[in-house]
Design a protein that fits this description.
Elements lengths: L3 H11 L5 E6 L5 H9 L2 E7 L19 H16 L5 E4 L3 H5 L7 E6 L5 H11 L3 E9 L5 H14 L4 E2 L6 E4 L1
Parallel strand pairs: 1-2, 1-4, 2-3, 4-5
Antiparallel strand pairs: 5-7, 6-7
The structure holds S-adenosylmethionine.
Length: 177
């Protein structure tokens, strides 16, 4: 699901016209990706999702999808047709951690994580993407009310003494890197 509070935090930080370079991890039907593109100007938005049951993370590690595996294929087809031709969108059909290796350090203004929701996956995602965000940029995601997400986020915040923001009502979460 999308996170209005996270998107609002981007406007608050960057304003509408800043040429952001961002990444969404876990895209599904692309609903939030469209919202992100409508929220602030993007020089580039990377959309990262394997759109299939992965070998690295079992489907049971991920948030349930109404359409199951078929829903993922449908999601990928939708994202390709609705967003695939945009000059400022790059679709990477691959897993989060694997995709993070393609990025040089400190190249992204923000990363939004809404992929697999287990502690193990959330931990791996946060640690893989933090180095890719510029100093002062934003790392955040969705579903802070999921125990695995909360545990991984809280652990990072405690370890690095960051100030965590939680969206009212939609469980978006984010902090300054
Ligand atoms: C909750 S949905 C994303 C919804 C989307 N953020 C939105 O609000 O429109 C979760 C997605 O995470 C993807 N996912 C699961 N494991 C992943 C991984 N290791 N890396 C990237 N994406 C993953 C699933 O394929 C699924 O499409």
């Amino acid at each position: 699901m999308s996170s209005a509070s996270f998107n609002w935090s981007l406007i608050h930080k960057y304003g509408k016209n800043f040429p952001a370079v961002g990444a969404e991890i876990g895209v599904h039907y692309g609903v939030n990706a469209e919202l992100l593109l409508g929220t602030i100007n993007h020089c580039m938005l990377f959309l990262i999702d394997p759109w299939c049951e992965s070998s690295y993370l079992k489907w049971t590690d991920t948030i349930e999808s109404p359409g199951g595996i078929e829903g993922l294929e449908e999601g990928f087809n939708r994202v390709k047709s609705v967003l695939g031709n945009r000059h400022n969108v790059k679709i990477l059909k691959m897993e989060s951690v694997e995709a993070s290796l393609l990025f040089v350090d400190k190249c992204l203004d923000y990363v939004y994580i809404d992929a697999a929701h287990s502690y193990k996956a959330s931990y791996a995602d946060i640690r893989a993407w933090i180095p890719k965000v510029k100093a002062g940029g934003t790392l955040g995601g969705h579903d802070y009310d999921w125990p695995g997400v909360k545990e991984a986020v809280d652990e990072y915040i405690a370890e690095y003494g960051k100030k965590l923001f939680i969206g009212e009502g939609d469980y978006g979460w984010w902090f300054d890197v």
